[in-house]
Amino acid sequence: MGKLTDAICRSLNRLDKKYYKPGNYPGVQFWVLTSGTKTWYYQYRTPNKKYPVSKRLGNYPHVGLVEAHKKAKQLAQNIFNGIYPEEQEKSDIMKMQLGEALKNYYIDELTEANRHRPSTIKNIKAIFKVWIFRNTYDKEILNKLLRADDIQYKKLSSITPKMFKNLFQIVGSKSPTTANRLQNYLRKFWNDYVKEADNPFLMKKKFMYDENVYLDFLDPTELKRVMKVLVQVDQRTGRLNKDYYIKRKLNPVSCLLLAFLLTTGRRTEEASSLTWNQYLKGDEPRIRLFETKTSKKNQKLIFGLGDDAVKVLNLILKDRLNNPDSRFYFPVNDPRNNCIFPSKDYGRKLANGKCKSLHIIDPDKTWDKSLKLGGVERHMKVYATRHTFATNFYRETRDIKALAEALGTTEEIALKYAKLVGQTVVDGINKIKFFDEDKVILKQVN
Fold first, then answer.
1. 354-393: per-residue pLDDT in tens?
2. Which of 12, 267, 340, 360 is close enough to 274 for a disulfide, judged by CB 3.0 to 4.6 Å?
3. Is the pTM of this model over 0.90?
4. Interatomic CA distance for residues 353 and 332, integer angstroms
């Protein structure tokens, strides 16, 4: 077999199973993962382990062919001298400044290839950007941070719980929720990347801030009014009433997405990215997801659809069929054709750059407008669609196990979604007979 070259590394494509090519130095392996990520490993043996151990050298092309082999040779020399990579790595990491370690963490660990959700990656980086790297134009935040140690320049070995607690309280004075997120994300970073026992970001629960749990939902009457706003059909054609949506300046794709969320209880990102290949028709219509927020734990990826959810999908199918006027219709070669909820902005230049998403991402504006048109004056998050589904599901069935199955969560989480704690309290109160059921005869007092 010929030598591995950069040209070969670039040309290797991902397959259904991960595979590797041997490098040009004993023990070096160039792996191509099913996600398409290409990464270098060095395999070696230690006296206390039966099987070979692999040390990751970095992802390609961030770590090129020459650099990977140079790293492998240095590791081989260290092993020959009795210095094993895992011991050396811990020592080297603890000498890093926090900012440097976080940047390496972004490259080596915090990636989709390592099964981190894009939204999780985005949220972690956004909080670190402001509160660790101090990259913000907000003068109030910058003034607050002047009272805390700039820990991005502190070596990991020198960061103390007291140092972080001071930062945590300063962040909490601006936003308690953000402070809790910062603590959780730094703790995750330490556990995933540093892997040392003494984690300075491990806060005791009593020091964490209480967060208000979002519990709002549409009651049955509100739900019907809002659904009427979202779904309007032309009785002559059986398709969406185009004039209705134009007159009220509503995006029909966003409206049908919201209707689907209300009839399925799915999370926004799970539903908005659905393709027609994920819609399993038949006697028992279902959708198949690639992953969910909880699929790592319970592996549930297939969810049944109720009759109204199927009606929403069938309405979209009918509306897009040979109908250039439909917002769901696109030319044959357009990649959005396979998206159930396609984005009109794909390929356009927007304020934050060119839109790369084939499907709708954010139906917030349509949701706010639909609530007002439906007579719901209070502000509600789009996530309330999931709470609405759960609460109304339980009101009709009183079956918490079935609700957990429909949501793809544990029964404990389903209880929170369905607001059962409050409802149980009210039911209990109403069972108490505070008044005598017999008619009370009032005596006249002179």
1. 788 889 988 999 999 999 999 999 989 998 999 999 988 9
2. 340
3. no
4. 26
